[in-house]
């Protein structure tokens, strides 16, 4: 049993701010606090104190609450990416850096996962991945200030983690993503089953996140760029033959950007 509780704090329309705590202690950590209000409300209701903030990338829906939270909790340490502009960072993290939190009970390792943005990072510990807007349940982030090649390589890197890793992404985009996944692989039985299960969760008001890496590998087309059916669908859309993860990835991402979203 992981002693760490990971709690979703919904923010804006579809963001999740992840709050990490250990039952019975007052310390907690938040990941990507785009808005201070849901965090402050939870901390007050539960009588907790904020000791750290983890930032994955520079976008405002992931950083907008940092300043106000720091005013309330001046001793909270703000961690974030070394290679993109995020204001108010106390520690700039390079690939492979280790972050020790919650009195040493949670140790995270930093993975550089550029592509959505140029310096996006993820935080990995035994069984958990906080990946911001890189990998989503059923999909992946758009390419904004990084490149398609970077995002393709970053997803390959995540695909190498243990299959039981829980994927804590930063948005509830799952059902929309799975609709596109179904365009790509209309006959993927694991995908069709996932759509039913996640529709049921949303109908009951539950998050579909976290998922597991194993489920993503079975159903998320952006992690399946070497599966023959996925390659064929991407080639059909592109109107030419494609080879390698990067080419297939780029065609899928452009297909979704142009025709689906
Ligand atoms: Zn973003
Ligand atoms: Fe975002």
From TrEMBL:
CDD domains: hydroxyacylglutathione_hydrolase_MBL-fold. Pathway: Secondary metabolite metabolism; methylglyoxal degradation; (R)-lactate from methylglyoxal: step 2/2. Zn(2+) 1 binds at residues 57, 59, 116, 133. SUPFAM superfamilies: Metallo-hydrolase/oxidoreductase (SSF56281). Residues 14-171 form the Metallo-beta-lactamase domain. It catalyses: an S-(2-hydroxyacyl)glutathione + H2O = a 2-hydroxy carboxylate + glutathione + H(+). Its cofactor is Zn(2+). Zn(2+) 2 binds at residues 61-62, 133, 171. It is an enzyme of class 3 (hydrolase). Thiolesterase that catalyzes the hydrolysis of S-D-lactoyl-glutathione to form glutathione and D-lactic acid. This is Hydroxyacylglutathione hydrolase. The lineage of its organism: Bacteria, Pseudomonadati, Pseudomonadota, Gammaproteobacteria, Chromatiales.
């Amino acid at each position: 049993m992981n002693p760490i509780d990971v709690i979703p704090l919904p923010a804006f329309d579809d963001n999740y701010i992840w709050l990490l705590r250990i039952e019975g202690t007052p310390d907690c950590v938040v990941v990507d606090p785009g808005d201070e209000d849901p965090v402050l409300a939870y901390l007050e209701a539960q009588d907790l104190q904020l000791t750290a903030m983890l930032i994955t990338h520079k976008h405002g829906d992931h950083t907008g609450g940092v300043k106000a939270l720091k005013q309330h909790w001046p001793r909270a340490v703000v961690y974030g990416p070394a290679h993109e502009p995020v204001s108010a960072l106390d520690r700039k993290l390079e690939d492979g850096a280790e972050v020790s939190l919650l009195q040493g009970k949670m140790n995270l390792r930093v993975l550089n996962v550029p592509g959505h943005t140029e310096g996006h990072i993820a935080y990995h510990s035994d069984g958990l991945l906080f990946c911001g807007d890189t990998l989503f349940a059923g999909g992946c982030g758009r390419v904004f200030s990084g490149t398609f090649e970077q995002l393709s390589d970053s997803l390959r890197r995540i695909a190498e983690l243990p299959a039981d890793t829980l994927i804590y992404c930063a948005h509830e985009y799952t059902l929309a993503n799975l609709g596109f996944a179904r365009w790509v692989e209309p006959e993927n039985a694991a995908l069709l089953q996932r759509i039913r299960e996640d529709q049921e969760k949303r109908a009951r008001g539950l998050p579909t996140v976290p998922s597991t890496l194993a489920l993503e590998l079975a159903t998320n087309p952006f992690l399946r760029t070497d599966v023959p059916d996925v390659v064929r669908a991407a080639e059909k859309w592109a109107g030419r033959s494609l080879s390698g993860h990067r080419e297939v990835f780029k065609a899928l991402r452009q297909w979704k950007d142009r025709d689906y979203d």
